[in-house]
From TrEMBL:
Protein name: Aromatic ring-hydroxylating dioxygenase subunit alpha
Species assigned in the record: Nocardioides pocheonensis
CDD domains hit by this protein: RHO_alpha_C_NDO-like, Rieske_RO_Alpha_N
Matching Pfam families: Rieske, Ring_hydroxyl_A
InterPro entries: ARHD_Rieske_2Fe_2S, RHO_NdoB-like_C, Rieske_2Fe-2S, Rieske_2Fe-2S_sf, Ring_hydroxy_dOase_asu_C_dom, Rng_hydr_dOase-A
């Protein structure tokens, strides 16, 4: 997609021979500037002082601006490579609120398209995943191949001579890249490379994704559920918030402890580090020489010596197991149970959670099964930890729109000034109990919200 001389008009693209240029003009259509007026959010985020205005969770205009300035230009998680084994395999997901289809073409190339027919706009595929030769709209029968090209139009003779199928292919996501089994896409026609966007965050991700040359795979499908709450509440918690664990998850920790009385004091008051990325990513993790996987079957099978040789002591004693992380804006993961998830925005006060369990491909089936079950019991839709988190986010959202409540600032000051280069973990880190990555998350959000995206030219 390319910017146009008129900042109020969005140029989009179709698949086909000219998809590299990715410009499809609207013709005589032109949107009024009032429809795309942007808000200066500088006063809503005080990164240096650690304060946040609750309007970032409730205002509909801000939410609409997020779609065009945060989600449209960012690298967004789409799927895992293990979901695509044969040509024609596809997976339906979202980029922001835009429905997209990720598919493997006959040339075994990953592509993604807007899941919307160019005729009247209905989805061309209503299945969540599967295998196909073509995507056919059930409204009027327009059909598209795996490369997004329009290949069949009922009553095509009724269209004018100027009608060309090549002009009406599916709108293609211009850039798809993978990182250690994870597929990301962006609508930005000239993005910085994915690896560069990840920066030092990739080192922390590798503690979960790069245990051996075989990589990871998905087990157990995808679990989906809807929560009341703004998507940022979940994304920032996974980036920055170990602080809530002992309070919010007290009952779960008690149930899981060997004595039934809760974990030992040295576990409750663990020390660790929190990675703070300038691009808004974040990761927190306890640090201990004997950090282990929680599922006993997984722990017993794991060769920690081999992992130390591949990943180094710092990763094995830190982000390999217990911990939390977010890749900005809305992809998060938990290494200890193999959980990866996306927080799909569904309005300023609602999100849809999609969660996968990933495991090392080389693990025996019984070890994979043990990890899958452990993930379901803890962070599945009815998991003993997941329910605590969802209730917290919904509670925060439920009262945030009150007139007085909405004007009361939120405190993100824990660990203020503690950020530093610690010499052991890449990049800037803070204490385990800190809001540092949260402050960085919202600083990045503020920057993107106040920066014209690729489709706006120099408009503000």
């Amino acid at each position: 997609m390319t910017s146009t001389t008129d900042p109020t008009t969005v140029a989009v693209t179709s698949a086909g021979p000219h998809s590299g240029a990715i410009e499809l003009p609207h013709g005589a259509l032109q949107r009024p500037a009032e429809m795309r007026r942007n808000i200066d959010v500088s006063g809503l985020v005080d990164h240096e002082g650690g304060l946040l205005d609750r309007a970032v969770f409730t205002d509909h205009s801000i939410y609409a601006q997020e779609m065009r300035r945060v989600f449209a230009p960012s690298w967004l998680f789409l799927a895992h490579t293990d979901q695509f084994k044969k040509p024609g395999d596809f997976f339906a997901t979202f980029m922001g609120e835009d429905p997209v289809l990720v598919t493997l073409t006959r040339e075994k190339k990953l592509k993604a398209f807007l899941n919307s027919c160019r005729h009247r706009g209905a989805r061309v595929c209503r299945a969540d995943f599967g295998q196909t030769r073509n995507f056919t709209c059930s409204y009027h029968g327009w059909s598209y191949d795996l490369d997004g090209k329009l290949v069949s139009v009922p009553n095509e003779a009724g269209y004018p001579e100027s009608f060309e199928r090549d002009d009406w292919g599916l709108v293609e996501v211009p850039h798809i890249e993978t990182y250690n089994g994870l597929i990301f896409g962006t609508w930005n026609p000239s993005p910085i490379p994915l690896r560069e966007s990840l920066g030092d965050m990739a080192w922390y991700m590798d503690a979960m994704l790069d245990h051996d040359d075989d990589g990871t795979e998905v087990v157990g499908g995808i679990h989906k559920w809807v929560l009341d709450g703004n998507w940022k509440l979940a994304a920032e918690q996974f980036a920055t918030d170990w602080y809530h664990v002992n309070m919010s998850h007290a009952s779960a920790l008690m149930v899981m402890s060997p004595t039934g009385k809760g974990p030992r004091d040295e576990i409750v008051h663990r020390t660790g580090r929190q990675y703070v990325d300038p691009n808004g990513h974040g990761a927190g993790f306890p640090v201990h020489t004997k950090n282990r996987f929680d599922a006993k079957t997984v722990h017993d099978h794991t060769d920690y010596t081999a992992l130390r040789e591949r990943l180094g002591d710092a990763r094995v004693e830190g982000p390999l197991t217990n911990g939390h992380a977010t890749v900005f804006p809305n992809f998060s993961y938990l290494p200890v149970n193999g959980s990866i998830r996306i927080w799909h925005p569904k309005g300023p006060d609602k999100m849809e959670v999609w969660a996968w369990t990933i495991v090392d491909k080389c693990w025996p089936d019984e070890v994979k099964q043990a990890q899958r079950l452990y993930n379901l019991r803890t962070f599945g839709p009815s998991g003993i930890f997941e329910q605590d988190d969802g209730e917290n986010w919904s509670e925060c959202q439920a009262i945030a729109a009150g007139f007085i409540t909405n004007g009361v600032a939120l405190n993100y000051q824990m660990g203020l000034g503690s950020e530093r280069e610690d010499g052991r973990y890449p990049g800037t880190t803070s204490e385990l109990y800190s809001d540092a990555a949260g402050r960085s998350f919202y600083a990045r959000w503020r920057t993107l919200m106040n920066t014209p995206a690729w489709h706006e030219g120099d408009a503000r």
